[in-house]
Amino acid sequence: MRSVFIRLLMLAVVTSSAISPAMSQPERRAGGDARQQASLASEKAEESTAAAAFDRMRVEGNTAVYNLDYKGARAIFQEMTKVSPDHPAGYVYLANNLWLETLNSNRRLSSSLYSGGSFYVQDAVQDEADLKRDREFNELIKKAVALSKARLQTNPRDVEALYYQASALGLRAGYSLSVNRSFRRSIGDANESVSLQKKVIKLDPAYTDAYLSIGLYEYVVDSLPWIWRTLARLAGIKGSKQKGVEHLLLVTERGKYTADDARVLLIGLYSRENQPERAFEMINLLADKYPRNYLLGVERAAMLYRMGKAREGDQAFVALLGSEHVTKAAVDLVNYQWGEAMTARGDDASALEKYREVIRWTRSDKGLVTLAHLRAGQALDVLGKRPEAAAEYKAVMKRDNVFDSRKQAAEYLKKPYSKTPGGNT
Question: How far apart are CA 340 and CA 347, in angstroms?
Fold first, then answer.
């Protein structure tokens, strides 16, 4: 089973949304003497200038996010909250930036980590997380929701306020799921978020960007592991993969601010639907636009493998490892993903070397090292090197648990890992 839920959430700025044209204040009625007219004209000019600056910061901030410059993005979004302290957008973007920065630092923006059912196995209600980051994230969400509600009290038909309230809840759903692995809370927030986005469309059918979340939700619900899909349906939550794709394509064509977000989501959808050529097209477009985003480079290299172009894939991975951005921060991630691509192709011997590179690199993320030990053990079992495989599983048992890594290692210590039907894959 290849779950799409987390992959989509991880690779995209899922609820990184638009500043709509409604940013400007309601027009005032003209009238009065020349002094009043001049005052009104001056106020409108100031509002127009502020709106233009706000929109420019939105573009620059989200470009920084896509280029993995989280520090730069944070500074820009903080400035947005100063320029317009009563607008929820800046706080939504700050929360989104913090979420993605957290995932990237923990290597949870790596799509292959969510390719099986391991992520969904848990022994507690939720995982432990950085309490300081949790508090900061939740405070930003609360602030965004409060500002949105304040605007809605003044004008219940304020589409932009409704949109950002929905975006804030969608962000909290993604954070709860990917950082805390709190599935129940994430489903509740996601459901409420999409309900609000549907209200946005009802109030303003031309607000195409709202279809980003709606399309994602439609596809994801219809693609959840059967247990969660069953629970969702019992709660009256339904989805359609076909509608989801149609909505996202609409956003790529007519979305004012979220077209790239929709393209990122479609990479995951096309990949899942075994349409690697279409996914590759989207990856290339975005990778060329955001050259500092090595995650897109990793996706491009891995997709070449899926397309049966392993040699070109190898060249792409080698190029990544020669990039300054990667050598400073993500050698472990690139090698792990390269190993996963090789494993999927059946080249376990070569994959084993990549997993060992992850283990050897002194700056590797500790969670990814645990998973590399697990995957190295599996590769060794496939290669018939049982004693070495057992040593890798024992190493996993001594490390912090990542998803269900210890459970899997314990099983493979009892019975060797096997790819054959009936084996404990």
Answer: 10
| 252-310 pLDDT, tens digit each | 999 877 888 899 889 888 988 899 999 999 999 999 999 999 999 999 999 999 999 99
CB 208 within 8 A of CB 197: no
pLDDT at residue number 53:
85
Please say whether the beta carbons of 249 and 282 come within 8 A: no
Angle at CA of residue 127, ends 344 and 178, nearest 5°: 55
Residue 39 lies in a domain: no
Tens-place pLDDT, residues 156-203: 999 999 999 999 998 998 888 778 766 667 778 888 998 999 999 999
Q: What is the CATH number of the domain that holds 139?
A: 1.25.40
Question: Count of domains in the chain?
Answer: 2
Which residue range forms the structural domain that includes residue 335?
A: 330-425
Do 163 and 150 contact (CB within 8 A), yes or no?
Answer: no
Residues 266 and 336 in one domain: no
| Selection from 18, 37, 29 nearest residue 88 by Cα | 18
In this prediction, residues 351-364 reach a mean pLDDT of: 97
Residues 243, 335, single domain; the answer is no
State whether 269 and 335 are in the same domain: no
Question: Which segment, 129-133, 401-405, 406-410, 416-420, is predicted with the most confidence on average?
Answer: 406-410
Judgement on whether residues 63 and 176 belong to the same structural domain of the protein: yes
Any domain includes 294? no
pLDDT band at 78 (very low <50, low <70, confident <90, very high): very high
Tell me which of 273, 288, 318 is where a domain ends: 273
